[in-house]
Amino acid sequence: MPYTFAKSQALFERAQRSIAAGVNSGIRKQEAPVPLYFARGSGPNLWDVDGNHYLDFQLGQGALFYGHAPAGMAEAIAAQARLGTHWAAQCELEPEVAERLQAMIPSAELVRFSNSATEAVLTAFRLARAHTGRKLILRFEGHYHGWADEGLVGFANPPGAWGDDENPARLHPSKGVIPEVLEQFVVARWNDPAHLRRRVDEFRGQIAAIMFEPALCNTCCLEPVPGLMGTIRELCDRDGMLMISDETITGFRFGAACAQGYYGFRPDLTVLGKAIGGGTPFAALAGTRAAMAKILSGEVIHAGTLNGNPLCLAASKWCLDQVRALGASHPAGIQQLGHRLMAGLSAMAKEHGVPLRPQGPGLIFHTVMLKPGAAEGPIRDYRDYVRRHDAPRWAHLRRCLLEEGVRAIERGLWSISLAHGEKDITEALVRSARAFQRHAAGWPPAA
Ligand SMILES: Cc1ncc(COP(=O)(O)O)c(C=O)c1O
Questions:
Q1: What is the pLDDT of residues 39-61, one digit of tens each?
Q2: Residue 146 near ligand 1, beta carbon < 6 Å
Q3: Do domains 6-69+331-442 and 71-327 have the same CATH topology?
Q4: Deepest in the core among 32, 56, 289, 371, taking most CB within 10 A?
Q5: Is 371 considered catalytic here?
Q6: Which residues of 90-114 are buried (b: 16+ CB within 10 A; e: fewer)?
Q7: Which of these CATH numbers, 3.40.50.12780, 3.40.50.720, 3.40.630.30, 3.40.640.10, describes 71-327?
Q8: What is the pLDDT of residues 270-322, one digit of tens each?
Q9: pLDDT score for 434
């Protein structure tokens, strides 16, 4: 049966009469042919209100690392809900979750909980500025650190306003942001240690922290080139800056010790989101005792009515125990599934003459669609991605995949969950083969 979306369409039309633009996070409008309305999920499976079934690799923007509606987590939340949903005070679950983080992540000597990674990022910036008495944060082009004023500088710089390769521009994609926000950042290109060194030297003595996604999952899944993490650590130690690893996506997906364990580096502060709460609104800032000192002394304020919410803590405790129970088999287990899916998609692309190039460490990966005439070889940074990725052609294939019941993140990111198994990958590849056929037959669309 071909997929149709009449009920989602009707609900979206209804929602636009009461919800601004019909959605509660701008990015959700990108889903074509219509923002979907979901009825239920189970493990790697998702059903929308029209009854369409998807093998889900979008996974709630990566938060559902344990799949949809895991029974153990549902029970943990329900048991806590019967005891109390919110106290704005302490409960035993707080140290229970914090101690798990300490045991899993060597740099997590102390933690603070928040409701979203966006908030944890803001806490990290405030701590870094208080710690150093300096204003600037160095961040990289194409990295996403939440939707607040400070998280988005340099995220999606439009070509033509990039600035030259040596001086990436400080731009903000949203209106309503005061220019002073931009002046608090230095933007550098990702994956060029020599360029980074020059950028730090240019602003030496003024930079409070270097902030980064350790694998740049928000732009094309760009793993750090060898030596990059060592260069960041060395520069931070040399100049007294804090090294802040934003592990909102990589946290727990890349192993119990997160991407810092996987790539072998030790940051001063770590932002944790998504998988830490398995789909509940939960995040944490973890750090060394030295980096957290200004919270200990009370000089830096970190607050929030719902911080350390017991429902989220109950969920998080269950989530972290799943990761710990996997022991040394994680992340190799999901990585092997991801590599199989990447290889299958590559083979189909070759068979149908589609220039699709999956890229990433398998735990998560991005499907790059090369523009006509674009050079082969791995994408290196944000500019390289924008120059070589054919976004309209990917959008066409993505829609064909969706209509065959395979759901990736709109911009081309695929996440594997602990709920996916070999048979789900096999089924996803069978469905993808049909999607490739339709894409090859329908691209380019008739004018
Ligand atoms: C790397 C990174 N940092 C921060 C955030 C913000 O997380 P949240 O949407 O939970 O505030 C995201 C969200 O996608 C992210 O990918």
A1: 999 999 999 999 999 999 999 99
A2: yes
A3: no
A4: 56
A5: no
A6: ebebbeebbebbbebbebbebbbbb
A7: 3.40.640.10
A8: 999 999 999 999 999 999 999 999 999 999 999 999 999 999 999 999 999 99
A9: 97
Domain boundaries of the chain, sorted by first residue: 6-69+331-442, 71-327
Q: Is 123 in the pocket of ligand 1 (CB under 6 A)?
A: no
> Does 48 participate in catalysis according to the annotation?
no
Measured in Å, residue 153 CA sits from the centre of ligand 1 at 14
Average pLDDT, the chain: 97
115 alpha carbon – ligand 1 mean position (Å): 11
Q: Select from 249, 254, 272 the residue to mutate for testing ligand 1; criterion: most ligand atoms less than 8 Å from CB.
A: 249
- Alpha-carbon dihedral angle through residues 170, 176, 180, 185, given to the nearest 10 degrees: -30
Ligand 1 contact, 302 CB (< 6 A):
no
From the CB of 134, is ligand 1 less than 6 Å away?
Answer: no
User: How many angstroms is it from 213 CA to the middle of ligand 1?
Assistant: 10
3-state secondary structure of 233: helix
- Residue 332 neighbours by CB under 8 Å, 6+ apart: none
Mark the ranges of the chain whose per-residue pLDDT is less than 50: none
In this prediction, residue 447 carries a pLDDT of 79
Helix, strand, coil share of the chain (percent; to 5): 40, 15, 45
Catalytic residue among 268, 274, 384, 424: 274
Domain 6-69+331-442 sits in which CATH superfamily? Aspartate Aminotransferase, domain 1 (3.90.1150.10)
Q: In whole angstroms, what is the distance from residue 64 CA to residue 52 CA?
A: 20
